[in-house]
Write a structure and sequence with these properties.
The protein has one domain: 5'-nuclease (Rossmann fold, 3-Layer(aba) Sandwich). It is about 50% helix and about 10% strand. It is built from 9 helices and 5 strands. It has a 5-stranded parallel sheet with strand order 3-2-1-4-5. It is globular.
């Protein structure tokens, strides 16, 4: 099953454990898997990374263009239908404060989950479940409600049997 990546997968890898300067293999692997159609994301995630007008100028926001236009998907009609279902779920869930719902519906997470639901994809995120939260709607909790598989990036790497090996 193809993987759908959240923005935090890119951002945290870049900032910490898979920096471009010491772990280029991770980034090369993402490009190859994107070309193969095994890994993708959505345009809203790209916008979170680069800024809607590409105003961010760090190494990650420049590198992200290496993934090509097909990597970052636009909502399709099925996604729009799923967005309605996810929005109805959020509004129908009395656990969350109105501000949490509005924040969720205004960010890429909402579209990411909807795209995964519509296209039967596995969501990959570093976000942690917080099922008792009233102030935040978390990706893993929404995925759980819709029976969408949601995993950590390290699990994705294990499933794909990735070996980041040091060469002499």
């Amino acid at each position: 099953m193809p993987y759908l990546l959240d923005s935090n997968v890119f951002i945290e890898a870049h900032r910490s454990y898979y920096g471009f300067d010491f772990c280029p293999g991770f980034w090369e692997w993402l490009i190859k898997q994107g070309e193969a159609g095994t890994i993708l994301s959505i345009k809203a995630v790209k916008d979170e990374i680069q800024g809607k007008d590409k105003e961010r100028k760090d190494k990650l926001s420049s590198w992200i263009d290496n993934l090509g236009e097909d990597f970052f998907q636009e909502p399709n009609p099925e996604t729009v239908n799923a967005m309605k279902e996810v929005a109805n779920w959020a509004y129908g869930n009395s656990q969350y404060k109105e501000s949490a719902i509005q924040k969720f519906l205004g960010c890429a997470d909402y579209e990411l989950i909807s795209y995964a639901r519509a296209n039967k994809l596995t969501v990959v995120t570093l976000e942690q479940s917080a099922p008792e939260s009233k102030t935040q709607i978390r990706i893993p909790d929404v995925c759980h409600a819709f029976k969408i598989e949601c995993i950590l990036p390290f699990e994705m790497l294990r499933r794909e049997k990735i070996n980041l090996i040091l060469k002499d």
